[in-house]
Amino acid sequence: MYAGIDVGGTSVKVGFVDEKGKLTGIKRAATGRITVEALADTVAGILEKSPSPVSGIGLVTAGRVNPATGIVDAGNLGWWQVPLRSVMERRLGMPVHIDNDVQGALYAEWKTGICKDAENVVYISLGTGIGGAFILNGRFYRGRGHDGAEIGHMITHADGEPCACGGRGCFERYGSAAALSRMAGGVNTRVVFSRAAEGDAAMAGILKRYTHELCIGIASVSVIFRPDMIVLGGGLSNAGNALLDPIAQELSTASPTIPRGKPPVVRLARHGNEAGVIGAALMAMDGV
Ligand SMILES: [Zn+2]
């Protein structure tokens, strides 16, 4: 049995994954902003009640994670340069693989999900921001200092809206779930999709504009990497075909968004909210 830990802004999830990569159970604990020491205590408490012995532990979290050094910066948790891995390993008494949560989600899809064994994959996580992860030539691509794959801060609008990163015109200002909600005057994204489906012309128009913004980013990464597949994950991917079908239509060869070549293969992630814990456990299992 392997344990996969997914640290979020408000809670931590600990999933138990068997040798075949199947999730057999999951436990959650509310955390909020928490110190790494308190997080280690919470996780230790859950693992002590594990149904069977744990032979490896993986942990994923949002933020800048360096899997080589185990150092993490996670603004939403108030962590700056925290030695997460060494604190966890000391408290849990065994090696812990740590990684970024989007890398974890991609790893889950690549091992047991929608892009199983593909050579080249771009994963785009659509949430409050936009996260990214790449498998290139069958391996993770992380960039210098493990800072690569920041698809959300790719510039899709020259000199556009200011972004939290300090830049302007970043993809996540236009293509994230938060951007869709903003376009719709603050309406929850689920409501945008349901109203559009019910025939609300204004919401349908907003969705069309949003799809176009998303396709600009998708088309850009597609022409750079020519991946076998682009996988859409994150909370917004729960919208399913209501999200995917208009994207496929806009990216079709008749669309002006992509000037030439075959449209990219775009698919929805399969593992949903459990992608992080599954990916974390699989990384620990495979010694990634
Ligand atoms: Zn930015």
Defining traits:
2 domains, globular, 13 strands, Nucleotidyltransferase, domain 5, binds zinc ion, alpha/beta
Q: Helix segment count?
A: 9
* Portion in helices: 25-40%
Average pLDDT over all residues: 94
Low-pLDDT sequence parts:
none
**Terminal CA distance:** 17 Å
Number of domains: 2
Beta-strand share of residues: 15-25%
| E-strand count | 13
Oligomeric assembly:
single chain
Based on Cα principal axes, name the global outline. Answer: globular
> Which hetero ligands occur in this complex?
zinc ion
**Structural class based on helices, strands and sheet pairing:** alpha/beta
Largest sheet, spatial ordering of strands: 3-2-1-4-8
Q: Output the CATH homologous superfamily of the largest domain.
A: ATPase, nucleotide binding domain
CATH-defined fold name of the largest domain: Nucleotidyltransferase, domain 5
CATH class of the largest domain: Alpha Beta
Which helices and strands appear, and what pairs or packs with what?
Layout: E1 2-7, E2 11-17, E3 23-30, H1 36-48, E4 56-61, E5 64-66, E6 71-74, E7 79-82, H2 84-92, E8 96-100, H3 101-112, E9 121-126, E10 130-136, E11 139-141, H4 172-175, H5 177-183, H6 189-197, H7 201-225, E12 229-233, H8 241-251, E13 266-268, H9 275-286
Parallel strand pairs: 1-4, 4-8, 9-12, 12-13
Antiparallel strand pairs: 1-2, 2-3, 5-6, 6-7, 9-10, 10-11
Bound molecules: zinc ion.
Textual characterization of the structure:
The protein is α/β, with parallel strands linked by helices. The chain folds into two domains: 2-104 and 273-286, ATPase, nucleotide binding domain (Nucleotidyltransferase, domain 5), CATH 3.30.420; 118-269, ATPase, nucleotide binding domain (Nucleotidyltransferase, domain 5, 2-Layer Sandwich). It has helices spanning 36-48, 84-92, 101-112, 172-175, 177-183, 189-197, 201-225, 241-251, 275-286, and strands at residues 2-7, 11-17, 23-30, 56-61, 64-66, 71-74, 79-82, 96-100, 121-126, 130-136, 139-141, 229-233, 266-268. The strands form three sheets. It has a five-stranded mixed sheet with strand order 3-2-1-4-8. The chain has a five-stranded mixed sheet with strand order 11-10-9-12-13, with helices on both faces. α1 (36-48) runs parallel beside α2 (84-92). The longest helix has 25 residues, at 201-225. The structure holds zinc ion (ZN).
